[in-house]
Amino acid sequence: MSAGPVAVVTGAASGIGAALARACAARGMALALADVEAGPLAEVAESLRGNGSRVLECAIDVADGDAVAAFATAVRAEFGRVGLACLNAGVVGPRLPVWEQRPEDWRWVLSVNLGGVVNGLTAFIPGLMKQGSGHVLVTASTAALNPVHGGGNGPYAASKHAVLGLCETLREDLGAAGHPVGVSVLCPGPVATRIRDAARNRPDAAGEPRSPSPSFENTITTIDADTAAARALAGVDAGRFLVLTNPGSETEAGARFARLERDLVVE
Ligand SMILES: NC(=O)c1ccc[n+]([C@@H]2O[C@H](COP(=O)([O-])OP(=O)(O)OC[C@H]3O[C@@H](n4cnc5c(N)ncnc54)[C@H](O)[C@@H]3O)[C@@H](O)[C@H]2O)c1
């Protein structure tokens, strides 16, 4: 990994983000952690400090660009260089057909899953370019590679596809400008986390959740968050752009790309 001694993790209070923080701490990295849930974030930070890690924590909403910029400033002031920036915070909205998703459903999911990543890249990439090193690991999903079986996941799929396209473009931009900053997109399949209870963080302005917690029929085996984080860091170590964590997801994605490829014909 082209990582220095400091890892930034957003969405660090739970699930994959907390596991990424633990995995980076186990490598001896200092942590800069952000999450919208202050209490759980403080608990994660305390437990890492108890194990000897240096931790900066910030309770912020990643959809708030000014707050993310202030977080990046605080990280630079505290630690200087950043080795690995994990832009991981994300939510999933009600599981409904595309035509039943309301504007506030779209706004919430896109503002966190896409807007949060845009804000993180805007805040952290210039510092990585300046220091001439570092790596960005953006959490997308297998929903960036193929639709969830049975549908009902439009805003989430759109946000994760957008993140993948954004990161491919970022990689091109960095390469064209000669900046040695790595980019990886994490595409987990099902991971046992609190994602199905994402509505706990839905701001009032986004409206009341309108469906039960989303459930996804999946042919891919669920893994635990620590396994996902270990595979994420292994993918970064290997210099992969796409980082998959769940066996079987490569087959599903391959089948989707093969389906699309059949239509790569100019009529
Ligand atoms: N769990 C899965 O099956 C799965 C699969 C593929 C991708 N993902 C992605 O993994 C990432 C992490 O999700 P998870 O599964 O660990 O879920 P989780 O709910 O356990 O953790 C997500 C964390 O993000 C935080 N968060 C939510 N909105 C935020 C905001 N506006 N600002 C800052 N923090 C915010 C939450 O408080 C929580 O701590 C997400 O991007 C999700 O889309 C999860």
Automatic annotation (TrEMBL):
> What CDD domains does the entry give?
SDR_c (cd05233)
Identification of the protein by name? SDR family NAD(P)-dependent oxidoreductase
Q: Which UniProt keywords apply?
A: NADP, Oxidoreductase
Spell out the residue ranges making up region: Disordered.
Answer: 199-218
| Classification via InterPro entries | NAD(P)-bd_dom_sf, Sc_DH/Rdtase_CS, SDR_fam
Superkingdom in the source lineage: Bacteria
State the similarity comment: Belongs to the short-chain dehydrogenases/reductases (SDR) family.
Which terms does the record give in the GO molecular function aspect?
A: oxidoreductase activity
Pfam families, per the entry: adh_short
